[in-house]
């Protein structure tokens, strides 16, 4: 059994009810945070998860909405891990991740030096261990494996999706992408596919060209559903709603997805939880 919690279902546009993109995946006693948008630690606190409890941080890409709270996560994990010689936080992301993590730590240089000066048991900066991947096996520990494949969010490149497996259960996290063969292959037969979605039927009518531009590198609800259908996944979990999902309109979004995918469809607000077992 793998448990998915949509910690943040928002987008770059601040929303009073939706944190930035981030998904928590609990598999085989391990806890993976996939992307870390704004407000992620507040949402994680709501389900009893702290930064120090994470097994690894997985980043699909380096767009600001997906890494907005990276600094908060790194510093908070550091100051709330009380075991001596804490292991480094594994961070798995596309090429560019090491540079982004290093620059984030540099931005917090003053904070880090204050805390090292103040606390006798903090003697070194936050320990991290960055692994950059565009494809292949990125994690294989205690019965949980994570495979990476490229996605297509051009001109944002490289971008990656993750397939997390624990026993017979599997979950794929697509991130932001248009439909592509490598995602179809990564998601093939998975128990669940977590996919970001935008309503192109609405967004194409927004007068600002900069808003319209987002249509060309994201999947619509129907495209995400068609990917789920081609890959033959059990459950489609939609997140990263653009525009924000308005309470009461869930069935509209569900119907658009159901026009392309006959499996189970999940959508909802921050903290929506989905359990994924073995495929029937
Ligand atoms: Zn993006
Ligand atoms: Zn995004």
Describe the protein.
The protein is of the alpha/beta class and about 280 residues long. It has a single domain (about 1-275), classed as Metallo-beta-lactamase, Chain A (4-Layer Sandwich). Helices cover about 30% and strands about 30% of the residues. The chain has helices at about 40-45, 65, 70-80, 95-105, 110-120, 180-185, 200-205, 210, 220-230, 250-260, and strands at about 1-10, 20-25, 30-35, 55-60, 90-95, 130, 135-140, 145-150, 160-165, 170-175, 190-200, 235-240, 265, 270-275. Strands 6-5-4-3-2-1-14 form a 7-stranded mixed beta sheet. The chain is globular. The structure holds zinc ion (2 copies). InterPro entries: AtsA-like_MBL-fold (IPR044094), Metallo-B-lactamas (IPR001279), RibonucZ/Hydroxyglut_hydro (IPR036866), RNase_Z/BN (IPR013471). It is an enzyme of class 3 (hydrolase). This is Ribonuclease Z. It catalyses: Endonucleolytic cleavage of RNA, removing extra 3' nucleotides from tRNA precursor, generating 3' termini of tRNAs. A 3'-hydroxy group is left at the tRNA terminus and a 5'-phosphoryl group is left at the trailer molecule.
């Amino acid at each position: 059994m793998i448990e998915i919690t949509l910690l943040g279902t928002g987008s770059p546009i601040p929303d009073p009810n939706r944190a930035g993109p981030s998904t928590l995946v609990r598999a085989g006693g391990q806890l993976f945070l996939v992307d870390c948008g704004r407000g992620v630690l507040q949402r994680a606190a709501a389900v009893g998860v702290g930064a120090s409890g994470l097994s690894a941080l997985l980043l699909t890409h380096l767009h600001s909405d997906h890494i907005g709270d990276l600094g908060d996560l790194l510093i908070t994990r550091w100051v709330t891990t009380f075991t001596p010689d804490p292991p480094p936080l594994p961070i798995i992301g596309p090429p560019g991740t090491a540079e982004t993590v290093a620059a984030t730590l540099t931005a917090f240089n003053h904070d880090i030096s204050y805390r090292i000066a103040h606390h006798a048991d903090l003697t070194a900066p936050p320990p991290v261990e960055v692994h950059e991947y565009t494809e292949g096996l990125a994690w294989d520990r205690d019965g949980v494996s994570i495979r990476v494949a490229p996605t297509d969010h051009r001109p944002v490149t490289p971008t990656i999706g993750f397939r997390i497996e624990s026993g017979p259960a599997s979950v794929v996290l697509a991130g932001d992408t248009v439909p592509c063969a490598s995602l179809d292959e990564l998601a093939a037969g998975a128990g669940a596919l977590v996919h970001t979605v935008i309503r192109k039927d609405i967004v194409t009518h927004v007068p600002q060209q900069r808003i319209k531009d987002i249509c060309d590198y994201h999947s619509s609800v129907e495209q995400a559903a068609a990917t789920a259908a081609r890959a033959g996944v059990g459950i489609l979990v939609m997140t990263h709603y653009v525009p924000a999902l308005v309470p009461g309109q869930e069935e509209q979004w569900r119907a658009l997805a159901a026009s392309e995918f006959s499996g189970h469809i999940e959508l909802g607000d921050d903290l929506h939880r989905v359990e994924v077992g073995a495929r029937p």
